[in-house]
């Protein structure tokens, strides 16, 4: 889609600097003082999911971890470091897992196409596909079936996150960050919020009773 050359990227960067300085001549001095993001987002690496620009969020507003098919894996030291740092040092208030329709990683997990290491990485998506096979096999249209799997995947990844001890400890201590699951509808550009069904987790003790109301009351 885009075919920007390196020289064009550098020129764009110069334009961007000018735009920022036009609105505030101390923009970069302020930016260099530190970050205070309210959000951690875990998203797919896909180049068509431009988190900051699609949410009109400025630098400093979103702490981001990305990987193919937005996986949350308890043994991924990269992700766990991001999670711990964002909770313990940045005091983020919300964690949002962002999946998207037309996700190549999701399709590859089902097709079993030989894509080298990616195949290993997305094995959990194949497990999710098998687990939800009864629902998914009823969807005859392949793209619609994959897109439903994107939705299920984002919910399953969020559920993985609930169980991670770093998150459990944070909840016991300060009751946040709150968890969300989103789908970026690549056909329309819209964010579709997915229902995480917190009750199930409240009932089995993984989330506190007042998990949702605490956020509504404190407007975090
Ligand atoms: Co993707």
Structure summary:
50% of the residues lie in helices and 15% in strands.
CATH topology of the largest domain: Beta-carbonic Anhydrase, Chain A
Kindly name the structural category.
alpha/beta
Q: Count of DSSP E strands?
A: 5
The CATH architecture of the largest domain comes to 3-Layer(aba) Sandwich
Question: What small molecules accompany the polymer chains?
Answer: cobalt (II) ion
What is the beta-strand fraction? 5-15%
Structural Rg? 19 Å
Identify the notable features of this structure and list them briefly.
2 domains; 12 helices; binds cobalt (II) ion; alpha/beta; Beta-carbonic Anhydrase, Chain A; 5 strands; five-stranded mixed β-sheet; 50% helix; 220 residues
Explain what the structure shows.
The protein is α/β, with parallel strands linked by helices and 220 residues long. The chain folds into 2 domains: 7-34, no CATH class; 37-217, Carbonic anhydrase (Beta-carbonic Anhydrase, Chain A, 3-Layer(aba) Sandwich), CATH 3.40.1050. Helix content is 50%, strand content 15%. It contains 12 helices and 5 strands. A 5-stranded mixed beta sheet has the order 2-1-3-4-5. The mean pLDDT is 93. The structure holds cobalt (II) ion (CO). Cobalt (II) ion is lined by residues 44, 46, 69, 100, 103-105.
